[in-house]
Write a structure and sequence with these properties.
Blueprint (H helix, E strand, L loop, with lengths): L1 E4 L4 H27 L3 E12 L3 E4 L24 E10 L1
């Protein structure tokens, strides 16, 4: 069998990741507009993708001579990550 660890509220984490990604994209757009000496007028396109992968847990079972023994599960530590990628296209002047 296998076991997966997940988040209690993945939608809330997706929203937080999206908000941070949008803020990061806006910060980069503002910096670029200053360097290029242009003005950001309005957003003309927005796309987003987010991903919350489960971390699988795999166990190995062994049978002893009596047929009833199983190995103690070895639970590995790890991390779950939520990511959000946004692309924002601005009209510039």
């Amino acid at each position: 069998g296998s076991l997966s660890f997940t988040f209690d509220d993945p939608e809330k984490l997706n929203q937080e990741a999206r908000t941070k990604a949008i803020a990061n994209a806006k910060e980069k757009a503002d910096a670029l507009s200053n360097v290029l000496d242009v003005k950001l007028i309005r957003i003309i396109n927005f796309t987003e993708s987010s991903y919350v992968p489960p971390i699988p847990y795999y166990s190995e079972r062994s049978l002893g001579m009596g047929g009833g023994e199983t190995a103690t599960p070895d639970i590995q530590t790890g991390q779950n990550e939520v990511s959000s990628n946004v692309t924002i296209v601005y009209e510039i002047q």
